[in-house]
Amino acid sequence: MIDSIEQLRANITRVFLGVPAAVDLLIVSLLARGHVLIEDVPGVGKTILAAAMARSINCSFSRIQLTPDLLPSDVIGVSVYKRDAEKFVFKPGPIFANIVLADEINRTPPRTQTALLEAMSEATVSVDGVTYTLEQPFMVVATQNPHDFEGTYALPENQLDRFLMKISLGYPSPQEEARVLDLRPAGSTLPLLTPVIEKATVLELQRFADAVRLDRTIADYVVAIANATRRDEQIRVGVSPRGSLALAQAARARAVLGARDYVIPEDVTVSVEAVCAHRIVPRNTSAGRDVAPAVLRSILQSVPSPD
User: Which distant-in-sequence residues (6+ apart) come within 8 Å of 210 by Cβ?
Assistant: First the structure.
């Protein structure tokens, strides 16, 4: 089982030459049945990372280029009238795939953004009074430029809360950037990438992550971190119970990466910023993006970690 994860990681890093920690966060989200929002400046490999993971798994993949004129029906599908059958037939949209790349999600209006909410929350799509169940595994990997860039719409808090993690890639090191110039992976390696892991194996890994033991002391630690965000004077809205559940599930998936069937405190601490920072609303919204990570780092220092 661990060999499958290593093969997946190695295949992704053939194309994505950036920070290895970002690859692990993406794999953790996959094992935890979560969705990922990748936010960073243009040109650092957001789309390449998402596409590389999708191509590494033998499952269905779709890419939605979210634009200002995109309609909700362009995402979830539409009912088309068939004259010969004299009835409407539903034509599924690109959301009906195992891995969905929602590229530049904050360039489309909120009405279209909300078309993803039901799918991300319940893995279902409702159209014309009929509910369709999405095939598992189902994962949305969304990319976006920072919200203060021109032509972007801020994602509402209820949609941000549907993402298990929000991660940033940053710039590669000079050595990694030189490798990008030599290999040009987007045009050479990515199109040749083939699956190294089956869909059934992903489902098995997800079930294994679900069964990882979370000791009561670790559960109390997760709750204490969440409660500390709600009491902090710099924070207007802290981590919700859904956020606590997300942190616990991410910790279970992180334990799988460590070849363990039980969670240790470090599984929680390394996941806190990616899982919790985007769920926090600071009192001073003009203070910048660094408030939530700084508060979380302070909380980790003040909340006692279990032995």
Answer: 252
Say whether pTM exceeds 0.85. yes
118-144 pLDDT, tens digit per residue, is: 899 899 998 888 899 999 999 999 998
- 160-180 pLDDT, tens digit each: 889 999 998 888 788 888 888
Name 282's bridge partners.
235
Q: Is the dihedral of CA 11, 123, 74, 68 positive or negative?
A: negative
Contact 62, 100 (CB under 8 A): yes
**Which tokens in the block code for residue 264?**
């240790």
Element (H, E) at 200: helix 199-210
Give the Cα separation of 49 and 12 in Å (integer): 7
Q: Which domains does the chain have, with CATH numbers?
A: 1-208 (3.40.50.300), 211-307 (1.10.8.80)
Residues 58 and 197: beta-carbon distance below 8 Å: yes
Q: Which two tokens stand for residue 72?
A: 């909700």
176-210 confidence digits (pLDDT tens): 888 888 877 777 778 888 999 999 999 999 999 99
Distance CA 82, CA 67 (A): 29
